Amino acid sequence: MRYDFSKTDATKFYFKSRWEERGYSSEFASFVVGDYANQLLTEPTFIFHNISGSVGFHKAFDSGLNWYTNLSFAMRNPNPSEFFSDGLHHSTGVIELGDLALDKESSLKLTSTLQKSGNLFLLSLIRTSIAFKIICS
After folding, report:
1. Using one digit for the tens of pLDDT, what is the confidence trace for 100-134?
2. Is there a contact between 50 and 3 (Cβ–Cβ < 8 Å)?
3. CA 119, CA 18: separation in Å to the nearest integer?
4. Residue ranges of the alpha helices (H) in the chain?
């Protein structure tokens, strides 16, 4: 089991037109600390509490058959670039726009393996199921 605390403090100018286009006026009004002609100065703060962990099981059978299974859960907070991008990403050549409304993501993964070993071989059958969910506020 693992716990992570993350805090992002930022300062960013937004064009007023972009701020309104993205619908930030009502939800993120508290971030605005200055109004300069056609731009707004913002100081957003984001706090995240994330957990992750895994549990596994192994059962050996008399016939050389082994069963392994593992369940994993993980959470991650958005990278600052996912919040604040506003223009050309030079290495990919695309325009990226960040989103202040992003929240943490979580994933759940179940893996199960049935393994048969003999004198001259090892055979494994693996099944993985992944559930991925984005949690938005």
Report:
1. 999 999 999 998 888 887 777 777 777 777 666 65
2. yes
3. 67
4. 16-21, 24-27, 80-84
